[in-house]
Amino acid sequence: MSTQQSDSGLFVEEADDTELLIAALAFLDEDSSGSASAEDAFLSCPGIESCGSEHVHLTKEDDKTSPTHEGGDKFVTNEKKNRNAKKRKWRNAPKEELEQLRVAVEGLEARLAGLKRREDGSESNAMTTDSMWSQIADRQLKAREGSVRENARLRALLEEHVRTAKSLGRMLIKVQSTGEESRSDKRLRANGTSNPLDDPAYEATARQTVLDMYHEVDRIASDPRYQEQDLAPTFYVADLGANEEGRIQIEVLETRQLPFELDVTANALWDMWIHRHFGPLEAKDVQGIELTQDSFIRRFDGEMRTESERTRFAFKTVTRRFSEPNRVVTVAVIMMQPTFLNGRPSDGVYMRTQVWNIINRTTDTHGNPATRRLVYKLVSPEVFDTVGSISDREEDLHMLKTYVIGNAATGAESQNQVLENKLVESLASLHWSRYAKD
Hints:
alpha+beta; Alpha-D-Glucose-1,6-Bisphosphate, Chain A, domain 4; 2 domains; 9 strands; disordered N terminus; coiled coil
């Protein structure tokens, strides 16, 4: 009896080994045209003997006819049913699990990328002296590259003008004619209405306005749009429409971080205002009406050039500076009348601008001295000539408004570039003076 049982056990064990081999071959044949991921899941199954013993009878559907199971008992039949159930579950599980793993991996990769961006952003926005100097160096390099391109353009333009002038000279000599010099660039003066740039009443009003503006500094500095402490510059421009008095208003807001002490930045800005260094604006015919240590009133003509157009203005500025322990405030009322706009003479309209420059003492994240410059402008295009055609005045007013909105960002960037240039020059001068003493 024991001999028969041992023989039977040996027979079953050998049959199991045979079925294991058959099952493995059948599994490979069935999945060779399917997904490679399922094959990888089968090969990576932990404990290949146990995995194979569980599924060895499940890969061949004609096992019911095998002579190995003809003499099997009820226990073998039940075990086979259980293994069939495990086979169906095992065949479907790897694909679903692999898909879930892929989704999980994509989610983790997206989260990791977000964390990296947040970390990079926090590092780039960290208010350090090095980062501020890095931005200044980048802008200085861009400005120099722009100057090189502009010089090349002007050189080519000059050569073209020289050729044109020579050609015109030959034509004049040939025809032996003379002509009156064109004066189309003269302003078309309107009669009967006071020009605000010449009216003493406008000047007196502007003097009082700058005093009133100083009392509004705290309100302007508390604007929520100024509260962001990031290193990146902030700039806004918005058309506010008409106020209660029917006056059109355009709002411009700007912030800058500079790696210089308060006095250095404030003096450079004041020097820029005194000498009329406003980026693309070229000043001429300056008339100094009044000049003190902390105030001045001045009138001058100016020309603003861009790549596509040239615009001429007449200016009158009333400016005052107020020094405090931790900030320096410069307020100004600027009346600007266009005399040549959009390729044609202009008259009867002007632009009234209120400017607040607030320079605050601050430090970077390492405790080094720095300054934070807040700029707020309120621009109002207005009509002062009611004698001319209403349609012409409306057209001029619309062009002036469009010019202000379209050039606000460029003007702010140019003025900031001039300020940075002055600060860098002052630092270089200080370095050379110390070097000379040593």
